[in-house]
Design a protein that fits this description.
The chain has 593 residues and is of the alpha/beta class. The chain has 20 helices and 19 strands. The strands form 4 sheets. A 6-stranded antiparallel beta sheet has the order 4-5-2-11-10-12, covered by helices on one side. α5 runs antiparallel to α13. The longest helix is centred in the last third of the chain and has 29 residues. One of its GO terms (biological process) is asparagine biosynthetic process. Pathway: Amino-acid biosynthesis; L-asparagine biosynthesis; L-asparagine from L-aspartate (L-Gln route): step 1/1. Its EC number is 6.3.5.4. GO terms for molecular function: asparagine synthase (glutamine-hydrolyzing) activity.
Length: 593
């Protein structure tokens, strides 16, 4: 894995590991800020390429009994050290494996992945974390097996055995939802290990097992009052925040937290401050002087945190299609992270620890559902566009899910929102207290009557952190204690003001799958990232996108029907629909290049 070039690895490659029964073909570059090492055991090649960051949580280790590789951060490591009476991660795994068996890693918390080879029984156990943002990919073909963190490495290596074929179901899924709804990648032969799952390999047989799933019965709130539920929410959330920020302190890193005008990131920084974590840099990126920037600055000032804001008005990130795809492999909407890539690329991230976010908080302590009755009406939801509704390949197999929230969490939250963490993981490890599995399980057990419409979420803030409610909630442009009826009226009025009647009409038509031409009057000009407005204002972006689309479409190994579908989506859709099509093209380039 050597080479003469010394490159900055951050922002260019996903850290992680690989396990193969052949010599893996990987980028020969030596990255100056990465540790690159490997070993061989019983015909298997094991290697890692990881940042020089949080190294006591990671390892590539071998002794007489096992081979162990760990990537990411284990946020409850010190708790487990105390529980098992050990002081190193290797001894911890040895003790946990001895006591718990092959699913021992289910007790880890955070964004992690890893593998354990038991020499006594010649068996691998290879896992991703509960919500799967420390992603792994695998294939078994032509008598060979490969598992790894980097899809590109596996795709390049597979070509030594045969041709890769594009999975048109994956293409259709991206076209409609902006993510993969199952274990698909753009390569039919390469699959993603789903969140909460692990691989067992013995005698060259690959078996996929599930160790965790979304459940609503981990805790029983049948006889609990709202006040009692709020107390538990606060207790578990504070522990989740403490786990993340203590990990920074363990290594002497500064705290870095994303902040916007929403509730989720606000509560991360706010509770961290209450717990005594004061050396915090809050970062925000949005359209200049939009509510997200203004509210974030107000909150950071109130907490005496440093704050850095990056206006997105230059829309330069819309040129970063291939750079972003090298990190997220085209598995989520290319620009779903807006300016995060450029922000972290401009920052000396090595001084900071976990990138703290409020990811998925809206859906965890709140809910994707607006009414409890929706829970048992299992149906597809959360599409970016209705233009694909008549395409059978775009639909998800709902039989995998127990209920509507299981479906939405397993797909939209984990395979969508959390998968966007891959871009951030190209710079540092990432966390969200809302995805702490103890907190997550607690929230999923809270009756939907409390969670829908953010009822318990708002009640928790107002009771425990009332000063955090002094700032406007960007989502509705009002404080959280405003009456629901007033919030809905204000939200509609704001939408009409921003886009005008033509804009409302255009979006409704798009959602219904009705084709209509977008007029300039329908463009939303105000928001965190008003993409359509930027396209109107920046013809060079349109020129670049059009050139990218035209130069890549004809060479795609797709059916003519699928190409026609992509053309229709790109040419008639708004900015988001265009990005869906561009994401597909960029993702397929990884397969065929």
């Amino acid at each position: 894995m050597g080479g003469n070039r010394m490159l900055k690895g951050r922002g260019k490659v996903i850290p992680g590991f690989y396990i193969t029964d052949f010599n893996l073909s990987i980028d020969p570059s030596t990255y100056s800020d990465m540790i690159v090492e490997s070993l061989s055991i019983d015909g298997w090649n094991v290697g890692r390429r990881t940042f020089n960051h949080f190294l006591n949580d990671k390892t590539l280790y071998e002794d007489e009994e096992c081979v162990l590789v760990l990537e990411g951060v284990i946020l409850n490591k010190t708790e487990l050290f105390d529980q098992y009476g050990v002081t190193t991660i290797e001894k911890l795994v040895e003790a946990m494996y001895s006591k718990k068996g092959e699913r021992f890693f289910a007790d880890f918390r955070g964004s992690f992945s890893g593998a354990l080879y038991d020499k006594n029984i010649s068996q691998w156990v290879i896992w991703t974390n509960h919500y799967g943002d420390n992603a792994l990919f695998y294939f078994q073909s032509h008598g060979h097996i490969a598992i790894g963190s980097n899809f590109i490495d596996l795709a390049n290596s597979f070509k030594s055995f045969g041709a890769l074929h594009v999975d048109e179901h994956a293409v259709a899924s991206m076209q409609s939802t902006g993510f993969m709804s199952d274990d698909s990648t753009y390569a039919l032969e390469i699959k993603r290990l789903l969140p909460g799952h692990y691989i067992r390999i013995a005698d060259m047989r690959v078996e996929i097992e599930q160790y965790w799933r979304v459940r609503h019965d981990v805790y029983d709130f049948t006889n609990s009052s709202e006040d009692e539920i709020i107390e538990l929410i606060d207790q578990y959330f504070r522990r989740a925040v403490r786990r993340e920020f203590e990990k920074d302190r363990e290594y002497g890193y500064r705290h870095l937290a994303e902040l916007s005008g929403g509730l989720d990131s606000r509560m991360v920084s706010w509770v961290a401050h209450e717990l005594g974590y004061t050396d915090v840099l809050d970062i925000t990126f949005s359209q200049a002087n939009y509510l997200d920037e203004l509210i974030a600055k107000q909150i950071a000032t109130a907490l005496h945190n440093q704050c850095m804001a990056m206006p997105l008005d230059d829309a330069g990130f819309l040129f970063d299609l291939d750079k972003i795809t090298c990190l997220n492999f085209g598995l989520t909407l290319a620009f779903g992270t807006t300016g995060a890539f450029r922000f972290f690329d401009a920052l000396d991230i090595s001084k900071y620890g976990i990138i703290h976010t409020g990811a998925v908080g809206d859906a965890v302590l709140g809910s994707f559902l607006s009414n409890p009755d929706e829970q048992h009406q299992l149906r597809e939801a959360g599409r970016y566009t209705r233009l694909m509704d008549d395409d059978p390949a775009s639909h998800c197999d709902l039989s995998r899910f127990a209920d509507q929230e299981d479906y939405l969490m397993s797909t939209r939250a984990f395979l969508g929102a959390a998968t966007s963490h891959l871009v951030t993981r190209g710079f540092s490890d990432i966390g969200s207290p809302f995805l702490d599995i103890d907190f997550f399980d607690l929230c999923m057990s809270i009756p939907l009557e409390y969670r829908c419409w953010h009822k318990i979420y708002k009640a928790w803030i107002l009771k425990k952190y009332p000063k955090a409610a002094d700032f406007i909630w960007e989502k509705y442009g009002m404080r959280i204690d405003a009456p629901d009826a007033l919030i809905r009226i204000h939200q509609f009025a704001r939408a009409v003001k921003n886009a005008g009647p033509a804009g409302v009409f255009f979006r409704v038509c798009t959602l219904l799958g009705i084709k209509t031409k977008r007029s300039k009057r329908s463009v939303i000009t105000t928001g965190m990232n008003p993409l359509d407005a930027w396209l109107d204002q920046r013809p060079e972006i349109v020129k670049y996108w059009n050139s990218y689309f035209a130069s890549n479409l004809d060479s795609l190994p797709l059916s003519e029907e699928r190409k026609d579908s992509l053309c229709e989506e790109y040419r008639t859709g708004a900015a988001t629909e265009k990005i869906l099509a561009l994401t597909v093209l960029a993702g397929i380039k990884l397969v065929k290049s």
